[in-house]
Amino acid sequence: MSDIEIREDRAAGRLEAVAGGEVVGRIEYFVLDAPERALVPVHTVVEPAHEGQGIAGSLARELYAVARGEGVAVAPLCPYVVKWAERHPDEAPATDPELLRAAKEWLLAHPERF
Predict the structure, then answer these.
(1) Residue 2 CB contacts under 8 Å (≥ 6 apart), including other chains
(2) Which residues are registered as beta bridge partners of 30?
(3) What Å distances lie between residue 30 and 1, 19, 75, 97, CA to CA?
(4) Peptide bond connecting 35 to the previous residue in cis, omega within 30 degrees of 0
(5) Contacts 24+ apart (CB under 8 A), 83-87
(6) What's the whole-model pTM score?
(7) Strands 14-19, 22-32: parallel, antiparallel or unpaired by DSSP?
(8) Distance (Å, rounded) from C-alpha 74 to C-alpha 77?
(9) Per-residue model confidence as pLDDT tens for the chain (114 residues)
(10) Coil, helix or strand at residue 8
(11) Distances from the Cα of 58 to the Cαs of 39, 93, 95, 97, 110, in angstroms?
(12) 58-71: b (≥16 Cβ within 10 Å) or e
């Protein structure tokens, strides 16, 4: 997977895995502002031809690294990121249940976003 570049498009709310100039995977997220600032991943997608190469895990790891660098939490709603976080507690701190509740409420209030 050495030819995969991960880049962030904050305006679009995406982390993208790029190979040969083509987006081969992504995590779609939004930024929650209250009750505290957090990155909230909603979907993880890897193109079928690129599955099984560790791309989704690399995207999840990078999302947590970005959050750590910004000093914010991650409130995962994406089932893949939830499972990844459970397997990597050293890289993915547990999320406050109140923050998860707020993230779910935000998503329900903005169905057009995803």
Answers:
(1) none
(2) 40
(3) 26, 24, 10, 18
(4) yes
(5) 84/56, 84/57, 84/60, 85/60
(6) 0.92
(7) antiparallel
(8) 9
(9) 458 899 999 999 999 999 989 999 999 999 999 999 999 999 999 999 999 999 999 999 999 999 999 999 999 999 999 999 999 999 999 999 999 999 999 999 998 888
(10) strand
(11) 16, 17, 20, 25, 28
(12) bbbbbbbebbeeee
Phi, psi (rounded to 5 degrees) for 71: 70, 30
What type of residue is 101?
R
3-class secondary structure, 107: helix
Handedness of CA 11, 87, 96, 111 (dihedral sign): positive
Cα 104 → chain centroid: 15
User: What is d(CA 14, CA 27) in angstroms, rounded to the nearest whole number?
Assistant: 6
- SS3 track for 17-67: EEECCEEEEEEEEEEECCCCCEEEEEEEEECHHHCCCCHHHHHHHHHHHHH
Do 25 and 41 meet the contact criterion of CB atoms below 8 Å apart? no
How much is the pLDDT for 1? 47
